[in-house]
Design a protein that fits this description.
single chain, 264 residues, alpha+beta, Pdz3 Domain, six-stranded antiparallel β-barrel, 6 helices, elongated, Peptidase_S1C, protease, Peptidase_S1_PA
Length: 264
Amino acid sequence: AKVTVTLIDGRTFEGVVKGSDDFMDLAAIRITPSGKPLPTAPLGRSGELQVGDWAIAIGNAVGLDSTVTLGIISSLSRSAAEVGIPNKKVNFIQTDAAINPGNSGGPLVNEFGEVIGINTAIRANAAGIGFAIPIDTAEKAMKVLSTGKKISHAYLGISMLSLTPAAARLNNDDPNSNVYLPEQYGALVLAVGPDTPAARAGFRKFDLITEIGGTAIKSAADAQELVDKAKVGVNLQVKVLRQQKQFTLDVVTGDLSDRVDGRK
């Protein structure tokens, strides 16, 4: 695919999309510039950020060119589910720097002018909160996408909800409830997709995931993080509670890109 790239000085170039990833909201575009050399922004290290560090968002907010807003780093690892876009496969930096429509794709920089993130997400119901893809994550992804290759994303094929002892007790005390839930922390399976790794491994609705690969699971975010970190095609041992009995399920992670493309 080809796109038109417009620079801040008004020059335009034809760009070629070398690769893109919908699950990370990233694309690699190559241009062949002419005329005066183009400056490049130095990359910082998002892994070295701390809550309270300065954050500066740059972009075309609501159509206004070259808008700069100042804030701080509010959180370092917000899951896609927490941000409200559970279909994405990335954890986000949270900032209170004003990020508006048009800022998406612009850099989030530190006080030294180093890029620490790519502005990407805005919660419509939460004023003053913006999110950015950490530059460490984006840099790794761009090295793959710029070669025309696809990024693999491991998945199981289940919908989950965090379960707490208090929430389980409320359910169990409800005379209209027809299911008993273990009164402990874990990731509760709400649905199992057909013809998915989870379905083939024997997962069932209302299974409570308590451990993955030897790591205790306290929430749906815990489970999702471990799956996201796993490679495609690896076997994960998952401990679940089902009707007050413990089972160990062996599940081989699938490639989410294959499922979306219709190959699995």
